Amino acid sequence: MTDTRATDQPELRLQADELHAYVCAIWERAGSSAREARLVADHLVAANLAGHDSHGVGMIPRYADSLHDNELKLNRHAEIIRDAGAVLTVDGGKGFGQVAGFEAMELGVERAKRHGICAVGLRGAHHLGRIGHWGEQCAAAGMASFHFVNVAGDPLVAPFGGADRRFGTNPFCAAYPRDGKPPFVLDFATSAIAYGKTRVAYNKGKTVPADCLIDAEGRPTIEPKVMHETPFGALLPFAAHKGYGLAVLCELFGGALTGGLTTHAATLETTNAIVNGMLSIIIDPQAFDAHDGQAQAEAFVAWAKASPLAAGAGQVLMPGEPELATQAARRAQGIPIDPATWQQISDAALELGMTTGEIGRYSESARRSA
Ligand SMILES: NC(=O)c1ccc[n+]([C@@H]2O[C@H](COP(=O)([O-])OP(=O)(O)OC[C@H]3O[C@@H](n4cnc5c(N)ncnc54)[C@H](O)[C@@H]3O)[C@@H](O)[C@H]2O)c1
């Protein structure tokens, strides 16, 4: 494996709209429709803005590899396989999850407005990226939602009590809409850290926090290379048996209930594809007899935030607030990208059909803004 890590070079930086234009250009050159390229760019740049670089533009090389493997399919749409009114089974056809997820949420929101609630089982989507994006889409339409996601056939995480990788980083998300304010969005991998965060640390030549990884012998380690160089180790679930239990339910709801695939010997992925299944429960708050719901929510938030601060803590935050703060800072100062990640994106852009001249213009701009 080539070591593309570049720890001694300066960070690059791009304004969100310029990075968005670069991502659109990359996928349009690869053959995506303008709408598809825009939805992918919307999602990846929003993940970077939120501070989740693990699910931002750094995913482009992996998507390019998956396209090269003929696994990721361009210009596919979410297809309703079974319509049971408030329960929809939707297939992503291995198209961009950024498109299938968007379209599945549009369908689910429309049904939830009609029936009060809708369960959308989306299966066979290529990487759905930052799941908070889907919670935010539902919240923007006034809906509360929660989402259980599995990563079919891509084991990275050891079961509680186990010593090798058996299932994916299976994220969970729940979003609560607020009148005239950004929603509360809880969104995390059920592994102690997201796999992409080991990639970011590896690219930067940094270690990860303790209690997140084991090596190939099942021993604790802080070296992210155990996830990127053989012999492979594994991520640990967060919060011991509790995080493990939630990961199991993400696998069952996201992979089995949706009619998709779970991870086992017969489904192990041998390509660069990342295939997500997602069960989304979308609820219209108007359907409840809860006229005081927003006031009760805000009263709780104020109450929780009034807690005296623990030693060393700066403030009490609600889920979603760290992302909003990072978003504001990055909109003002631009999005930082480490040089190794930038190089990997540029290599992928070239492979996908952009010219060195076009790539060079974005690279020059990113160096100038740093
Ligand atoms: N598509 C996939 O297959 C896949 C797989 C795994 C993870 N992911 C994505 O990876 C991303 C990163 O996951 P992660 O596990 O690294 O997230 P994380 O550990 O950074 O946790 C993020 C969540 O915790 C909240 N939070 C953080 N600090 C807080 C504080 N001080 N007070 C209150 N709330 C706080 C955030 O608002 C957010 O909801 C997520 O967006 C997830 O959806 C996707």
TrEMBL record:
Lineage, opening ranks: Bacteria, Pseudomonadati, Pseudomonadota, Betaproteobacteria, Burkholderiales
Protein family per UniProt: Belongs to the LDH2/MDH2 oxidoreductase family.
Cross-referenced Pfam families: Ldh_2
Name recorded for this polypeptide: Malate/lactate/ureidoglycolate dehydrogenase
InterPro entries referenced in this protein's UniProt entry, alphabetically: Mal/L-sulf/L-lact_DH-like_ah, Mal/L-sulf/L-lact_DH-like_NADP, Mal/L-sulfo/L-lacto_DH-like_sf, Malate/L-lactate_DH-like
Domain of life: Bacteria
Molecular-function GO terms, alphabetical: oxidoreductase activity
Swiss-Prot/TrEMBL keywords: Oxidoreductase
